[in-house]
Structure formats: C-alpha cells, structure tokens
Amino acid sequence: MAGRIGRTHANLLHHFGSAEALQTALITRMAADIVGTIGAAVLRVRAGELDPREVVEMTFDAFGKGGAGALASWMILSGNTDALDPILTAIHDLVDELAEGDMPGDQPIQDQTLTLVLMALGDALMGAPMARALGLPATRARELALDALLASKDAAACPSG
C-alpha cells in the first residue's frame, strides 16, 4: 500500500506508529467524508430536493466502491474492532442530529440507519456473488434497501393505534 501512495512502509510507520493507527486514521477520515455527504443528502431529501434513492446509492457506494466495507471487515477480522469507533460515533452523531424534532420514543431514523448500513455492508462484502447465485440483478440489494427505507418512512408517517 505504501508504494501506491508514493511512501515507504517506514514512512507510514513513523507517521502513524502502527498499522492499527493507520487504519484508525483512515476510517476516521472516511467516516467524516461519508457521514458529511450522506447527512447533507438526507437533509435535501427532507426538503424535497433529492430522491431518497440517492441516499441509498451514496451509502452503498461508500461501503462498496469507497472501500469502507472492506476496511471495516479487515479491522474486524484482524481483531482491531476498536478502530471502528470513529465511524460508529460519526454515524451515531449524525443520527442524533437528524432525529432532533422527532417524538420521544420514535426511532425510525435509527431503524432506517441500521437497515441501510447493514445492507450496504453486506452488499459490499458479497452482494454481487450472492445476487448472481440467486439469479438476481446485482442492484437487487439496493432496491430492497430503498423499499425498506420507504416502507419505514411510510410507517412512521401513518402510526397505527
């Protein structure tokens, strides 16, 4: 990896101290970028300026093309789960910010976030091979995530009781 960015392994170790510290710095940077972009998109959806599909696409792309899913998986498999704290904290803080004004006890944004993040992570790890094995289009998980997001939003708008 060091060679791909024009640095030596020694440069990286000197700057970060360890592979774990490099991973933490990387996930911290990724978290800030991802959460900032998605948070702004959610606000635009709420304002009617953006289709909710864009939030799903951004989330899936962040975990897939953006590499957050692979990095998170590597951290988990290597036992460096504490390094996930920056992304978990960033997501938590964004959800708290977006939930301001919700009624006490309502948790649709938390449910929506959990569903969307887990589906995007799963898709990043094995979505294409699984879809292919099931004879489904590669985009099927994204479609299911959008359906779940819209159903959750509809359920929150029409409380039963």
SS elements, strand count = 0
For the report, how would you describe the main beta sheet?
none
**What overall form do the CA principal axes indicate?**
globular
Radius of gyration from CA coordinates: 18 Å
Structural class: mainly alpha
Distance between the termini: 56 Å
> Uncertain segments of ≥5 residues (pLDDT<50)?
none
Strand content: under 5%
Give the ordered list of helices and strands. HHHHHHH
How helix-rich are the residues, as a percent range? Answer: over 70%
Mean pLDDT metric: 85
- Give me the number of helical elements: 7
Walk me through the structure.
With 161 residues, this protein is an all-alpha fold. It contains 7 helices and no strands. It has helices at 9-16, 19-46, 52-63, 68-77, 85-99, 108-133, 140-157. Helix 4 (68-77) packs across helix 6. The protein is globular and about 55 Å long. 24% of the residues are buried. The mean pLDDT is 85.
Task: Please outline the helices and strands.
Layout: H1 9-16, H2 19-46, H3 52-63, H4 68-77, H5 85-99, H6 108-133, H7 140-157
Helix pairs in contact: 2-3, 2-4, 2-5, 3-6, 3-7, 4-6, 6-7
